[in-house]
Design goal:
The chain has 292 residues and is of the alpha+beta class. The chain contains 5 helices and 11 strands; from the N terminus they run αββββαβββββββααα.
Length: 292
């Protein structure tokens, strides 16, 4: 196959991927913010909920006094056990925080309390121990990331929460995204600039610099906004990076490449390498959200 035919084939493949990639996001699709709290062994057997500074968040709201709005097991199959629901409803918080009728099942040993759908922005953790009719409540906390992680401790009858975001997992995800996107872009470079080692050196340097920057941007967006909201912002930055890379390679290509039409090859490579990076990054965020 002639080189020009190879380039056309590459263009067709990437155009097909771009056109048929599911990059549109509906208003309520994709990941939602969450609050996840690791609880110590002494909390086993308790029921856990988050008290909210606001009367509602998402589909959850404080009880309005009507039986139709009472989410307990006498009224709804998925509801909280009635005695537990009654204990939470009757709890009077010193700071006026609200029980939004979303209750976890009993906490297991070294278990987790997780509110995965529209958790309150400002909240307290409230534990209820049905065997002793006892409450434990934390101080006021705030969500600090799209997925906010906390670790709870109980000392002297006081319940304390501390932020415990898993930065090691974030670093692993960052490295994995970087390696995958760089590998894809370098494979494309080998197709468009076969046996042209002098041209590959600046391509490697440029891609390392831009991909580190882009992945740092993705990590920040995912930390604060989750894996979906960054896509449109990322697209704008990707277009800017594409323009800069194309300009640099346009200047360098005639000096470093021995192939015909080096500037056209440089532009074709830059456009489709960055398209590959964008589509691959989005696909990874949907298939393996743990990397974001």
């Amino acid at each position: 196959m002639k080189t020009s035919n190879k380039i056309r084939a590459v263009i067709f493949v990437f155009a097909f991927i771009f056109l048929f990639s599911p990059i549109l996001v509906s208003a309520d699709s994709g990941p939602k913010p969450s609050v996840r709290i690791v609880l110590p062994q002494e909390c086993a057997g308790a029921y856990a909920t988050l008290l909210s500074a606001e009367e509602s968040t998402g589909p959850h709201s404080a009880w309005d006094g009507s039986e139709a709005h009472a989410y307990h097991d006498r009224n709804e199959d998925w509801g909280t056990p009635y005695d537990v629901w009654e204990a939470f409803v009757s709890y009077k918080d010193a700071d006026g925080f609200y029980y939004l009728q979303l209750t976890e099942t009993q906490v297991e040993e070294s278990g987790e309390c997780a509110w995965r759908y529209y958790p309150p922005e400002r909240f307290k953790l409230l534990l209820y121990f049905p065997e002793t009719d006892r409450y434990l409540v934390s101080g006021i906390l705030e969500r600090y990331a799209f997925h906010s992680y906390f670790t709870a401790t109980v000392e002297g009858g006081a319940l304390t929460l501390a932020a415990s975001y898993d930065y090691t997992a974030e670093a692993v995800g960052f490295a994995a995204r970087l390696v995958l996107t760089l590998a894809a872009e370098l494979l494309l470079a080998l197709l468009i600039f076969p046996r042209d080692k002098r041209m590959l050196i600046p391509i490697v340097i440029i891609n390392v610099i831009t991909q580190v920057g882009l992945n740092l941007f993705i990590s920040r967006m995912a930390y604060y906004n989750g894996t979906v909201i960054y896509v449109l912002r990322y697209l704008g930055l990707e277009l800017a990076v594409t323009a800069v890379e194309a300009a640099v390679l346009w200047i360098l290509a005639p000096r470093l490449s021995s192939l015909e039409n080096p500037r056209r090859r440089a532009v074709v490579y830059t456009v489709f390498a960055n398209l590959c990076s964008y589509v691959l990054g989005y696909a990874i965020s949907m298939i393996v959200p743990a990397l974001f």
